[in-house]
Amino acid sequence: MGAETIRPARAEDLGAVRELWAAARSDHAITEDTPERVERALDALLVAELGGAVVGAVIAAFDGWRGNFYRLAVAPAVRRRGIGGRLVEAGEERLRALGAPRVSALVAFEDADARGFWEAVGYGADPDIGRMVKTI
Questions:
Q1: Predicted structure pTM score
Q2: CA separation for the pair 105, 60 (Å, rounded)
Q3: Contact call for residues 28 and 108 (beta carbons, < 8 A)
Q4: Bridge-partner residues for 5, per DSSP?
Q5: Domain map of the chain by residue range?
Q6: Which residues pair with 68 in a beta bridge?
Q7: Contact present, 69 and 88 (Cβ < 8 Å)
Q8: Which residues of 74-99 are buried (b: 16+ CB within 10 A; e: fewer)?
Q9: In the chain, which stretches have pLDDT less than 70?
Q10: CATH says 5-120 is which class?
Q11: pLDDT tens digits, residue range 81-100?
C-alpha cells in the first residue's frame, strides 16, 4: 500500500467511518454513532484513505470561537505510521482557514494512549478549564 490521502469525507464514506469508529471505539465514548449523527458531521469530517479504504477519520469542527477535534480514529492495522498526526495537521489547516484562533481536543483523563498522542502532536492539558456535561 502506498501513502494515504487525507481528504474531506463524502457521503459514500459514512458507512466505512462508522465501522472504523466501532472498531476503535473508546470505553469513554457513550454517544451512539447512528447514521444520522455521522451524516450531520459530514461537513467537518476528514478521512484518511489508503488503497481505496478509509483507514482514519477525525471531526474538525468550528463553532465560531474555537476549533474542536472529536472522534479521531485510525485503523489498528495502520497505526504508528503517522496517519493520526497527518489527520490532525489537515484538521488544523481546515480550522485555521475557517478562522479558528484556538483548538481543543476532547480526551478522557484516564485514556493514557490518547493523551500521549495529543501531547505528541503539540497539545497540552488545560489547567484552568474543565468540561461540564449533561446527557439530554
A1: 0.90
A2: 9
A3: yes
A4: 49
A5: 5-120
A6: 61, 104
A7: yes
A8: bbeebbebebbebbbebbbebbeeee
A9: 1-2, 27-30, 134-135
A10: alpha beta
A11: 999 999 999 999 999 999 99
